[in-house]
Amino acid sequence: MKLATVRHGGRTTAALVVAGGYQPLPARNLSELLSLPQWKEILKDASSGHCGPDALPASAIELLNPVPNPTKVICCGLNYADHILEMGRELPEYPTLFAKFADTLTDPEAQIPADESMDLDWEAELAVVLGSTLQDATEDEAAAAIAGYTVANDISMRDWQRRTLQWFQGKSFDRTTPLGPVLVTADELDPVAGLEVICTLNGEEVQRGNTKTLVFSAARLLSYISTFTILRPGDVILTGTPGGVGMGMVPPRFLQDGDELLTEIPGIGTLKNRISLRVAATA
Amino acid sequence: MKLATVRHGGRTTAALVVAGGYQPLPARNLSELLSLPQWKEILKDASSGHCGPDALPASAIELLNPVPNPTKVICCGLNYADHILEMGRELPEYPTLFAKFADTLTDPEAQIPADESMDLDWEAELAVVLGSTLQDATEDEAAAAIAGYTVANDISMRDWQRRTLQWFQGKSFDRTTPLGPVLVTADELDPVAGLEVICTLNGEEVQRGNTKTLVFSAARLLSYISTFTILRPGDVILTGTPGGVGMGMVPPRFLQDGDELLTEIPGIGTLKNRISLRVAATA
């Protein structure tokens, strides 16, 4: 199943993607839906029904960040084996983790605001969304707790990221990590078997990786994280980006005002984000 | 004014510390109180009254983490000039920042749980609590948005912190950062003029610093952070720790099962935490 959070008129709703459009579900967004203990039953009932007259046509809705209210957004860096090996590094023993906030996330077709002075870079990623609570979990338990997968672009301010040893401040600008366009339930996709992760800048492909080369699988990441902090329904884990970021180019290439960034995982969908740079720097 | 979140019987309440004990305020905790637009008026009314018969005696309450529900907990590393200079380093141009979660926080007299295998270390810190929303703020605006100050100990798992370049995973174990015992309103303390920050381990003083040597003052940290992410009432900023942590000793000294850690800022109060280590490691 494909799920979405959509705006229709002045309100938002969680929705099931059906042939005729978007079938509303009884929650304002997928964060709220996934926090209901009976969310799987709700989906089963909704999907077994036929497309009723209340499905919203695609033309009447706007796709939003599917999970706007995670209590935690945790990201893994340096996770694509092919990219790590091509850089001449050894595969890591532990995942490199850092945090973002719910405020860092934005809609799948949102403009990305920043200052012209900043070195904005792209990072196409597979994102995992939790469907149940997880604590000290095995990999099997973690796999069973995955509600589904979506697409993210961990757009990073490289100059801020490199101001200190800790990446956090370059990764946490409000409304700079688009997420969506839909959440595909875990039964329909297997990142271990392989999902392509593709980033295109103004029509030119800049990243293409495959999740089968992840050093730390989604389930392993969740299991590892759950040993130190509880994960809850609607929480979001970003699994890292493959090679091809602008920082790694010679010379480095950063995003410019008006650039169009497409982030695609076939089987899930495509984020379409335009970069919008202000002239005056604030810091 | 000194404010607290206390447990009394089966429920919790925000409270004003008065001569007779703890005067309940109309909110379940200080996170909830600070999110009320009229929280300053509520405090003014409560403090102008005399100690009524409804003040709870100290013997009837338990002090809790004053702000249990921050949307953001952001920490600054490497911020005490005397410690940085004694280590032979240059003063930093930018603050080193990383994030914790609300789940990382715990009560001012809580036991600190961990596995025996971990290298637990202490970091006594002044914590700042926001009283209003802050975005792209000047230092003056940031200073005006501070609700008050409290004490924190950013207890860190050094082995996990050093597994990768990013400190996050060693800093985000659930219920390992005690906060409290009270929140002292900003009009009563001036960290720029100087507050002592003291850590005592089993009766032996291991850290003593003064906030007048902070490279980045509380207001400057808030102003800087607010350029990239919005801060909200109840959010918590940890301002860094002075010299004297166990990792810096020769040989390094880490916390043992049963150790008693006192973290004190005169004028605010003292955290009293016992370390409780489990024998079996989970990771």
UniProtKB/TrEMBL annotation, chains A, B:
<keyword id="KW-0479">Metal-binding</keyword>
<dbReference type="GO" id="GO:0016853">
    <property type="term" value="F:isomerase activity"/>
</dbReference>
<dbReference type="Pfam" id="PF01557">
    <property type="entry name" value="FAA_hydrolase"/>
</dbReference>
<dbReference type="InterPro" id="IPR011234">
    <property type="entry name" value="Fumarylacetoacetase-like_C"/>
</dbReference>
<dbReference type="GO" id="GO:0046872">
    <property type="term" value="F:metal ion binding"/>
</dbReference>
<dbReference type="InterPro" id="IPR036663">
    <property type="entry name" value="Fumarylacetoacetase_C_sf"/>
</dbReference>
<dbReference type="GO" id="GO:0016787">
    <property type="term" value="F:hydrolase activity"/>
</dbReference>
<dbReference type="GO" id="GO:0019752">
    <property type="term" value="P:carboxylic acid metabolic process"/>
</dbReference>
<dbReference type="InterPro" id="IPR051121">
    <property type="entry name" value="FAH"/>
</dbReference>
<keyword id="KW-0378">Hydrolase</keyword>
<protein>
    <submittedName>
        <fullName>Fumarylacetoacetate (FAA) hydrolase</fullName>
    </submittedName>
</protein>
<comment type="similarity">
    <text>Belongs to the FAH family.</text>
</comment>
<feature type="domain" description="Fumarylacetoacetase-like C-terminal">
    <location>
        <begin position="72"/>
        <end position="275"/>
    </location>
</feature>
